Amino acid sequence: MAIDPRGADLKRYLQEDPGGPVVMLNLLRFAEGGRELYAQYADALSTTFLPRYGGEVLYAGSGSTPLVAESGQDWDAVLLVRYPSREAFSHMVADPEYQQVTGLRTRALTEAVLQATTAW
Known about the structure:
Elements: H1 7-15, E1 22-30, H2 34-53, E2 56-62, E3 77-83, H3 86-94, H4 96-108, E4 109-117
Antiparallel strand pairs: 1-3, 1-4, 2-3
Helix pairs in contact: 2-3, 2-4
């Protein structure tokens, strides 16, 4: 299952940039013990990297009973994170200091969706 964006994914993400801010939808499924690892990652993200790159968490919450979903489409957590641009997000994930903590996220998850969204 996909967890982390790959180089080709990031290249396409930047090529399709319509300009302006981007809100990243994060759908997360935790491994056993993953919530604690993800909490460590989220702490580093919110105290260091989001301020550094102009990002902000708009919403973070636990998943609940899905009302409309196919089997297996329920998620443990949902996050919405706003970045001033796709480029800002790309610079963050390329930051060597960020790369030292992103392993926490990788180990915390068994599956994830990371989708860029733009306002209507």
